Amino acid sequence: MNLFWKILFGSLTPTSKLEKNEIELIQAMERYDKIEKSVELAEYKKLFHQVKSATFQENKKILQNRKYKDTEEYRVTKKYNKLHRSPAIQLYYEGLKSQELNQYLKFKTTPEYENLGDATKVKGSEVFKRMKAFEKSKAFKNYVRFHDSFIIKEYEELKSKISTDEFKKTNDFWANQNRWHSTPEFIQQQRFYVLAKNPDIIFFENEKPERFKKYLELKVTFQDEFNWNTLDKSHWNFGFHYKNPSFIGDHSFANEKQANNAGKNVSVEEGILKIATKHEIVTARAWHPKHGFIKKDYNFTSDVLQTADSFKQKYGVIRAKLRCTGNLQHAFWMGADGKLPHVNIFHYNGKQITVGNATNNVFDSVKISGLNPSNYYIYTLIWNKKELVWMINNIEVYRTASNVPNEEMFLSFNSFISEKQHGSIGSLEVDWVRVYSN
Fold first, then answer.
1. Hey, what domains does the chain have and what are their CATH numbers?
2. Cβ-count burial of 346 within 10 angstroms (0-12 exposed, 13-18 middle, 19+ buried)?
3. Of 39, 159, 287, 303, which is least surrounded by CB within 10 A?
């Protein structure tokens, strides 16, 4: 598969941009989850349903647009004021306080009251004259008009009503042209507006959580950002892994031109794992298919790392960001207790990259061209019980449903020089490794 044109026309996302996008996505996912559980969002949602409801909006409309003249409070107040300002009613209440009225009403309860009908007796008594004169007065006639009248009863009821704290409060409310601003609903609306402008809530409302789906379905089971400085503090062991613990794993092969160097060619600097292939003359243990272990002279040294003792997994998503240099071979692969199955997530043979898997002596692979292996790329294997899918950055480069492993496998990195290669110094550099279950 040639990725040159995908790089040229931008369909292959650059590694730095892909990482940035993934970091931003994870940060957005974490932020979304935090906001989703927040008190502010719960309050915003509650207020949203209240403020946006038809009942709330209708009530707001009434409170903003209703005229004071249209209210019962206005009608009651107006009627009371009209009666209260009436000269006749004012005269009635002033008369109630007068000494003449009190004397007359008291006199009316006595037997002498009947004498007021006798003109002669009235002329002969100063008291009768005074009582008769008051009886004919405007004040008394006004008293008689209103005393125990419906209008006075109504006035007293209105007076009593407008004097209550409840009426005063309600009347003041409707008389206030800015009454809406004095309501609890207005406070709720203002709080809603404040929350609606909250950057976290704006983010939450505009976010599309479905884009988190594939990440939410994954669970990190292994991660190495290479913050250690010695192998004994890491997840990795040097040498090959064999099911039988008595087998020696620290060896090279007779048909290779480098001696695996017991982890001495492994280093971590500034969070980057480096397996260095060096030009060194050494004598080391090598496995020969006919003679078993032999001693062999080598002109190069390198190393192999694996997680067989610390981490194995069946199925999942396996990813690593790596690059390599030199006219030699570098690989990121998964192995099991036996020679097979074997899955190459990344393999560079000094000329080109391949990915693929081997099971039952069948090697299923694809060659990748158009990439510069000295640049960082993210190599991914998606492994489930039905198929294997390889990706480089965001591009799927190969997929197969043949020979899918169904057992736990470990991770491994190594660099080597085949017997057909001239060989050179070089390095395999790994920025990070992450494994997920799905």
1. 4-60+193-217 (no CATH), 71-182 (no CATH), 223-437 (2.60.120.200)
2. buried
3. 39
Q: In this structure, are residues 275 and 413 in contact, taking their beta carbons and an 8 Å threshold? A: yes
Report how far Cα 309 is from the mean position of its chain's Cα atoms.
Answer: 38
Beta strand pairing call for 272-288 and 252-253 = parallel
Strand partners of residue 435: 222, 318
CB 240 within 8 A of CB 304: yes
Q: What digits encode the pLDDT tens for the residues 26-56? A: 999 999 999 999 999 999 999 999 999 999 9
Residue 30, class by beta-carbon neighbours within 10 Å (0-12 exposed, 13-18 middle, 19+ buried)? exposed
Pairwise CA distance, residues 162 & 73, whole Å: 9
Tokens describing residue 370: 């158009």
Reported as a single tens digit per residue, the pLDDT across 99-135 is 998 998 898 899 998 888 888 888 888 888 988 898 8
Phi then psi for 5, rounded to 5 degrees?
-70, -30
